[in-house]
């Protein structure tokens, strides 16, 4: 019989920075479209693997010099590639010991529309259901959701990405983190160029621990993330000067902003070239994260480091209250 520590050791040896485990009972109140059983009905344990995003990935966008580094190293090979290797190594270890391992990337955001595909079988959910990555990470004891809804860990603050493995192995769960990392300073709200943060409070309670965050305007977030918002990107203003978008007045849904990003990226020289470059290496050719997570990650991180909540370094010019 394998143990939780053996699984964690395998994940770390395969490249994971953090590993947490939740038992299936913690998902008792999850809606069916986000419950692990809707993906793998035999799930008994949920393993959450995290890979940190290096601080340097953000510097180019922060300083207005290089937008590609965050795209490549904050999303691509620098994090997603490492996560894939760690998940593959962990899944192989589980399989070698007689257990199923179902890998799912999860979803960072609950979208406005429900799953659209047909049920995979009578009495089952559609095939496009997805566990909620950040809530699952909280249930695995790795940290908590910040007010921006970005996940915070004691080790890296808001700088990590996750992947998830569902397994039939009965593993010892990690305790939920009881202390709070987010102090509601609202640096994320003030720093977001999309005015997407700071909505009404949303919360879930598990084993007496309440995790809460501010609702996110998903349309404003996505249109800023794609770099269509002129406040977040110099490229749209340069190549489409007549767009004149006032992001405060937009009311896009997430899907509308998502589709708009694909339509506009081919008409903005820098974004179009980057999307083409990604397509050539097997990616989808989609627009990139032009906003650089200035509020939800960068401003939050500076505040937490200055406060001493998480380890890290600040540049001399950043030695001000975030």
Ordered list of secondary-structure elements with their pairings:
Blueprint: H1 4-13, E1 18-23, E2 45-52, H2 59-63, H3 68-73, H4 76-96, E3 101-104, H5 133-139, E4 144-145, E5 151-152, E6 160-167, H6 187-191, E7 201-206, E8 209-214, H7 218-225, H8 234-239, H9 254-265, H10 269-280, H11 294-307
Antiparallel strand pairs: 1-2, 2-6, 3-6, 4-5, 7-8
Helix pairs in contact: 1-4, 7-9
Stretches with pLDDT under 50, minimum 5 residues: 279-283
Question: What is the number of strand segments?
Answer: 8
> How much beta, percentage-wise?
5-15%
Provide the structure class. alpha+beta
How does the major sheet shape up? 4 strands, antiparallel
Number of helices: 11
Biggest sheet: strand arrangement: 1-2-6-3
* H-E order: HEEHHHEHEEEHEEHHHHH
Number of domains: 1
Kindly summarize this structure in a few lines.
With 322 residues, the chain is an alpha+beta fold. It is 33% helix and 13% strand.
Question: Please, could you describe this protein's structure?
Answer:
The chain is of the alpha+beta class and 322 residues long. It has one domain. Helix content is 33%, strand content 13%. It is built from 11 helices and 8 strands. The strands form 3 sheets. Strands 1-2-6-3 form a 4-stranded antiparallel sheet, with helices on both faces. Helix 7 packs parallel to helix 9.
């Amino acid at each position: 019989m394998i143990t939780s520590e053996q699984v964690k050791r395998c994940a770390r040896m395969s490249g994971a920075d953090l590993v947490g485990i939740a038992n299936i009972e913690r998902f008792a109140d999850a809606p069916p479209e986000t419950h692990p059983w809707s993906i793998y009905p035999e799930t008994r344990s949920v393993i959450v693997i995290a890979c940190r995003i290096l601080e340097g990935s953000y510097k180019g966008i922060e300083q207005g010099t290089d937008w590609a580094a965050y795209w490549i190293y904050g999303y691509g090979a620098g994090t997603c590639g490492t996560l894939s290797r760690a998940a593959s190594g962990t899944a192989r270890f589980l399989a070698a010991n007689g257990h199923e391992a179902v890998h799912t990337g999860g979803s960072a955001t609950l979208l406005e529309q429900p799953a659209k595909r047909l049920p995979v079988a009578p009495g089952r959910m559609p095939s496009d259901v997805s566990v909620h990555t950040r809530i699952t990470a909280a249930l695995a004891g790795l940290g908590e959701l910040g007010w921006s809804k970005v996940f915070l860990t004691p080790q890296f603050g808001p700088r990590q990405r996750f992947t998830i493995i569902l397994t039939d192995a009965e593993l010892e769960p990690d305790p939920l983190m009881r202390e709070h990392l987010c102090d509601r300073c609202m640096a994320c709200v003030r720093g977001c160029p999309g005015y997407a943060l700071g909505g009404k409070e949303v919360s879930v309670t598990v084993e007496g621990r309440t995790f809460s965050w501010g609702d996110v305007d998903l349309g404003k977030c996505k249109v800023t993330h794609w770099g269509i918002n002129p406040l977040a990107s110099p490229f749209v203003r340069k190549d489409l000067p007549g767009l004149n978008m006032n992001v405060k007045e937009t009311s896009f849904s997430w899907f509308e902003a998502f589709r708009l990003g694909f339509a506009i990226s081919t008409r903005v020289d820098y974004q179009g070239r980057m999307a083409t470059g990604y397509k050539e290496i097997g990616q989808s050719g989609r627009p990139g994260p032009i906003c650089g997570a200035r509020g939800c990650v960068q401003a939050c991180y500076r505040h937490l480091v200055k406060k001493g909540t998480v380890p890290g370094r600040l540049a001399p010019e950043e030695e001000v209250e975030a």
